[in-house]
Amino acid sequence: MMGFSEGEIIELTGVIAAVRSFGSERKYFVNSGDATFSFRTRDNLAAGDVIRLEGIFESLADFGIAARKVTVLAAKDADDAYNTVERKIAQNAGLKGGMLSENPASAALRGGMEAVARKILAAKGLNRFVMLRFHGDADGIAGALALRSVLRFRAYQQNSAIYSPREAVNDIGNLRHENRPLMILLDFGTNAESMDGLKLLRAAGIETVAIDHHPLHAAVKPFIGMLLSPWLVEGLEEPSKYSAGYLAAEIANMCGAENADAYAYAGIACAGDKSDVMRSGETEKKAALVLDYLAAHASFGNSLDFYGDVLKNGELFDSLWQQGSDRIKEAVENVLPRVKKSEKNGIIIYVIPLDGIVVKGEFPNRSKVTTAIFENFSTDSPMMALGYGKGTVIARCNSAFVAKGAGLSEIIKRVSSDMKDFVVAGGGHAKAAAMKVQEGYEKSVVERLIGEL
Ligand SMILES: [Mn+2]
Questions:
Q1: Mind listing the pLDDT tens digit for each residue in 192-231?
Q2: 95 alpha carbon – ligand 1 mean position (Å)
Q3: Separation of 291 CA from ligand 1 center, angstroms?
Q4: Fewer CB within 10 Å: N-end or C-end of the chain?
């Protein structure tokens, strides 16, 4: 921090971070990257404006300046100055040391996490308008809640894994009056299908940060300002288990979130995505189920704070948990009699017809039911479960299965290229994946998948 003395003539370039009205005058707070100064003027300035300020340093108490001349910078000068100020705030920001979990991903991605943490703290220092879209499941919600504890933003639940041009156009429309808005995509948006949406954001000049653990489509990289993905780490085993919510919780922790909160959200995120990166106990597992159950029912997009409140409301939480787990139990009981067990090359296979039992848009969805059946038959021997119905095929397998040869995403890739006419899209993680197929061909795709074993 540089030193100032009262009465000193001062000249600085900075970004208006906040405005307060005092009668006909307004008090402005300008962040130079080294400090935040305040001054009053009748000039009409807006948050986000980049200004050149000349005046006399008046008071050490609030870094007050008696303004003599205020010039609003425009175009390229403003952009350059803004970037300099942002960079300074980011560099000066103090990050909390220590990771929630020491693991191969947190070691390799530490620099990337710190960069996102600094970007967030700079956004906070500049009072930037931030929009965050989070995937509508426990992982995405827990990550968004972790970030919520260190940053203010407008949150939207994203129910699809794809950032579509429709959503991008909507967002661009909502952000068009904001000065240098920042968009954060959490737990989705780095797949090939999101490319068109990302391109539009980029073309509209909206800076984007993506935190995701879904298989990364390398071609999206140029359209994302800052990308944090375990798929960027070469040679990392099971990248997808470093769930987006876990990564977000590490970042929130660096930004100064309460340790207990950061741990809790990381644990819920991992419980939701069945990841062993964080140890999740009964509490985290229950919370993940409650969030998944809630997310399936919330048709309104702006639900994040409601989710946060529910986690703190014992009675509502308990009754949601009870309902959610009852619904899973019921679905499992209904499905179990139809499950067909077979064995091939030492692999136990469970095939689960889901049509007529799982209703679209209802809880639990196909993927949850498949997971529940998979867990019901859990064993240390190589094993896989395949659920199918209404144009989808869901696959789950255990570590012993992956150790025998290929992970699910690889097998799906092979089947997709062999069955181009029937498979619309497919992909996922080594132990959990899904395919969209033409209706009526689910069973043939399932047989083809088994044929690959
Ligand atoms: Mn996730």
A1: 999 999 999 999 999 999 999 998 999 999 999 999 999 9
A2: 25
A3: 13
A4: N
